[in-house]
């Protein structure tokens, strides 16, 4: 059985590689994008995306704008989105969740906790 496809959107190559490593070790398929614009292009070109993990602070298109665009598409209304960001202030968390993120995690996230949340959201 093929594992789920996860799209990672983060401008930090280090974070993308780390999160991809954690997920791939568990058998997930991973596609990485370096900002929200790149993320939308990858999302639209992928056959199937089961979950998105997105940063907030990124060049070209930030995570909030990215999430808003994803949620505007009927096809992606119910797609689980996890925000993984260094922005841990209440206003950022509120905004992320109001825009449609299912979960907001503050970096650095524990690999076990990230995996547990991914598994939970993928049911």
TrEMBL record:
Which keywords are on file for this protein? Phosphoprotein
Report whether Phosphoprotein shows up as a keyword of the record: yes
Q: Name one GO biological process term.
A: phosphorelay signal transduction system
The family database entries (PROSITE patterns) matched by this protein are listed as: RESPONSE_REGULATORY
InterPro entries named among the record's database cross-references: Bact_response_regulator, CheY-like_superfamily, Sig_transdc_resp-reg_receiver
- Which positions carry 4-aspartylphosphate? 55
List each copy of the Response regulatory domain by range: 5-122
Protein name from the UniProt record: CheY
Q: Which organism is it from?
A: Megalodesulfovibrio gigas (strain ATCC 19364 / DSM 1382 / NCIMB 9332 / VKM B-1759) (Desulfovibrio gigas)
């Amino acid at each position: 059985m093929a594992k789920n496809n996860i799209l990672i959107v983060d401008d930090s190559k280090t974070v993308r590689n780390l999160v991809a490593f954690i997920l791939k070790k568990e058998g997930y398929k991973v596609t990485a994008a370096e900002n929200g614009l790149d993320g939308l292009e990858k999302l639209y070109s992928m056959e199937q995306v089961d979950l998105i993990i997105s940063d907030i602070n990124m060049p070209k298109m930030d995570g909030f704008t990215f999430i808003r665009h994803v949620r505007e598409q009927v096809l992606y209304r119910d797609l689980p989105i996890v925000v993984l960001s260094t922005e841990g202030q209440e206003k950022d968390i509120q905004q992320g969740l109001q825009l449609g993120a299912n979960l907001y995690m503050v970096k650095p996230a524990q690999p076990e906790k990230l995996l547990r949340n991914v598994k939970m959201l993928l049911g």
